[in-house]
Design brief:
Layout (H helix, E strand, L loop, with lengths): L6 H13 L9 H13 L1 H14 L3 H19 L4 H10 L1 H8 L10 H10 L5 H18 L3
Helix pairs in contact: 1-2, 2-3, 2-4, 3-4, 4-6, 5-6, 6-8
Length: 147
């Protein structure tokens, strides 16, 4: 990642790009492109930013998008040496678990077995199970918001 791009600016632009998916506004598309470039060129930095995207996703749809976009791409192409980190995040973060549930991993990818194992262990075998995790996440976070 270009060090001149502030991480918070990147996160905000990535989510703005998602919000503009069905519009002609491409002003934030650079963030999507930068994330995929990062996955190709600097997997350690990409992993850090993906975790930030998961942590700061403002709603269920945005979190699912992170899973179906950059997390999925990362796990299919670069996930091999991050298997321990994937396990750790799944065990400690409901947000990560929900994003992971929205990732479709190629059967040829080394991270496929880990993905399947995690889904079975947490009994996320269908969309309803994944949605119940999201409901729990955003309900808990709403309860913590100051009034």
């Amino acid at each position: 990642m270009d060090d001149t791009v502030d991480r918070q600016v990147l996160l905000a632009a990535y989510f703005k790009n998602f919000e503009n998916t069905y519009s002609e506004d491409l002003s934030s598309f650079w963030a999507h492109e930068l994330m995929h470039e990062l996955i190709d060129k600097d997997k350690d930095k990409a992993w850090e930013v993906i975790l930030d995207l998961i942590d700061f996703a403002p709603n269920k749809e945005s979190l699912a998008y992170v899973g179906a976009d950059v997390l999925e791409e990362f796990l299919n192409c670069r996930g091999t040496r991050f298997i321990d980190s994937i396990e750790h995040e799944a065990n400690s973060s409901k947000r990560f678990l929900y994003a992971l549930a929205n990732s479709w991993i190629n059967k040829e990818a080394e991270s496929y077995k880990v993905h399947q194992s995690i889904m079975k262990r947490f009994e996320i075998l269908d969309e309803c199970a994944a949605d119940s995790i999201a409901a729990e996440i955003f309900s808990e976070e709403k309860d913590r918001e100051p009034e």
